[in-house]
Design goal:
Layout (H helix, E strand, L loop, with lengths): L2 E10 L2 E10 L10 E7 L6 E4 L1 H10 L2 E2 L1 H10 L1 H13 L4 H85 L13
Parallel strand pairs: 1-5
Antiparallel strand pairs: 1-2, 2-3, 3-4
């Protein structure tokens, strides 16, 4: 019987997440398993990995073979490094303290890389948001300028219309005044004879 450390697919279409399981190699992918040792969600950036490192290390020491993807996950979480350091201690190539120092140095470096990636992603999203806001502000200002221009043109047309109406009223008033006032006939002065 060959025992594998592999992924079991869960979730929905186009949004899968995986359980990291220990199972018989003959068992179905999503079927019977021996033990669940973690989860892997590739939908987040960076991918979310929750792993019981001690259980994974125990199964590796018992002879379980990880699949390619699980090997990468175990390497990313440092389980394979820990196994390598334990083998070095067994062979006498390393002391327990030296192995522990190497492990802690590796973990600090890995944590700093993950934090740097998260901060870079956060900065990139802030930059995208800032450029989007600037573009929206420019578009809003352009629309406001067009609206202001249309309002000024409309106000100018209204002023011209009022001036024309006032001129027509003045002309009409003059015409009515001219019509109302009869022309005074010239009075003849009696001629002295």
């Amino acid at each position: 019987m060959s025992v594998k450390i592999r992924l079991s697919r869960h979730g929905k279409k186009n949004f899968a997440y995986f359980h990291i399981i220990v199972a018989d190699s003959r068992a179905p992918r999503d079927g019977r398993f021996i033990e669940r040792i973690g989860t892997y969600n590739p939908n987040t950036n960076p991918a979310t990995i929750e792993l019981a490192s001690d259980k994974a290390l125990d199964w590796l020491n018992k002879g379980a073979q990880p699949t390619d993807t699980c090997r990468r996950i175990l390497s990313y979480k440092g389980v394979l490094l820990k196994k390598h350091l334990q083998e070095g201690i067994k062979k006498g190539a390393l002391t327990e303290d030296a192995a522990q120092q190497k492990w802690e140095a590796w973990m600090q470096e890995k944590e700093s890389k993950v934090q740097a990636k998260k901060s870079d992603l956060a900065q990139a999203s802030r930059d995208v948001l800032k450029t989007r806001q600037e573009a929206e502000t420019k578009a809003k200002e352009a629309k406001a300028a067009v609206i202001a221009q249309k309002k000024s043109e409309q106000a100018l047309k209204e002023a011209e219309a009022k001036a024309a109406a006032v001129a027509e009223e003045a002309a009409a008033e003059e015409a009515t005044e001219a019509a109302e006032t009869p022309a005074t006939p010239a009075t003849e002065t009696p001629a002295a004879s």
